[in-house]
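User: Show me a protein chain along with its predicted structure.
Assistant: Here is one chain, sequence first, then structure tokens.
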Amino acid sequence: MVTLFPYVVAVLCSATSARAHWLHPAAPAAASRAETSANYWAQDAQAAINARLERVESVKKARNVIMFLGDGMSVPTLAAARTLLGQRQGKTGEGTKLHFETFPTIGLVKTYCVDAQIADSACTATAYLCGVKNNYGAIGVDGTVRRGDCQAASNTATHVESIAEWALADGRDVGIVTTTRITHASPAGTFAKTANRSWENDGEVSQMGLDAKDCPDIAHQLVHHHPGNKFKVIFGGGKRAFLPNTEQDEKRSYGRRIDNRNLIKEWEDDKVSRNVSHQYVWHREQLMRLKEDLPEYMLGLFESSHMTYHLKSDPQSEPTLAELTEVAIRSLRRNEKGFFLFVEGGRIDHAHHDNLVELALDETLEMDKAVATATEMLSEDDSLIVVTADHAHVMTFNGYSNRGHNILGPSRDVGLDNVPYMTLTYANGPGFRPHVNNIRPDVTLEPNYRTLDWESHVDVPLVDETHGGDDVAVFARGPHHSMFTGLYEQSLLPHLMAYAACIGPGRHACASAAHLPSAHFFVALLALYTSILLR
């Protein structure tokens, strides 16, 4: 058995090493001179206090509600993404803020499922969109339905409504935007009622020996069932779930349906039968042309499966999440009553699953751009914007590196085996490398190191990296944003949004004390009344 004792001695006792002792980090060489002054931090604190005191929270009804969902956007992901953003701007990075991190309210939510300690994107979607926690893998049904139980899910008594349905019932318009397949678990939470998130097309249902007539697939539900068939904007990937397996799409990829139906055409036929203007698009150029002449209904499916990672995409043919968000808002805000829009940065999750850390962080920054677009287009006075994640991942941000140290590189120090380790690492996943004589390989020497497809080193070998069970953050701005502070169940989120928007079955802000005249008004009224009596 090989012992690590020699490596411990080497690391702890070497006086000639250029690296500082790992327990005693060196002074941050990259820090600005101003930051060495105590007065700098005192002034920074006072400026933050003044900003808080000057902010006035709107107590109006939220006419518009946008929920941004960073799939797998854990708190360490936020910290690493903001650092990467700052470093791309030529700064040290640590003090940078993402746009939505400037929102006035932040909270934390617990993400577990009814039957699972660590959640998936199906049970979490049911929580943050329907206000009900349920079982792993199921969407839009209550906790009595187990994953794959078609019979239980066919019972409408198990179905739960989403905030999208509450918005439609109030006469508002609804849209969904995602960088994943539009039938994927997160966006499906707005419209689907299914026992299995994998039933995106009828072929997937059939593979389990079931009949799609008894267990309607998610794509079929979006086109033909309420509420999906009432959505004014549907943007994302996943074209294959809408086309038969004998038919190619515009990019020569075959569909996955086995019922020989073309749901894109059926979507168009439905709009023709209702005599409403509509447009199907599959290319960025088509989408950009719609900005100036918006139809009432839009369906945009830009890839056969998920949309391409931003850093790998063709910017001429595939729109960014910010561009999709802009067109969606332009369309939906035409309704005087308002709208509900769900926007997902879904590929953060996929990159984490593959241990592709730079792609995960860049997808986070792309979603942040979409949030910035929304805040530029909508007033904080009557538009509530909520940013959150569905679950965490097992990426860690570790080491004792100096300020400004490359967030995508190795930590400043080495391990006890005298081998570098990365600042951002994963607990598990496909990036495992076998050890030789109990010594880790030096991943910085690999030929593809620092390429987009380079997998970060992990401790436990798995086909896919797993989700994490830690809490995720919530950021809010707009009417009644302070309601989102604290630590609470993820299932509270749609109820809070509904409260601010005065929709849905629960308590509404419109009927609360927040909409009554202020205490100052009553004091002034009492003083006036007293003066009249004393005359």
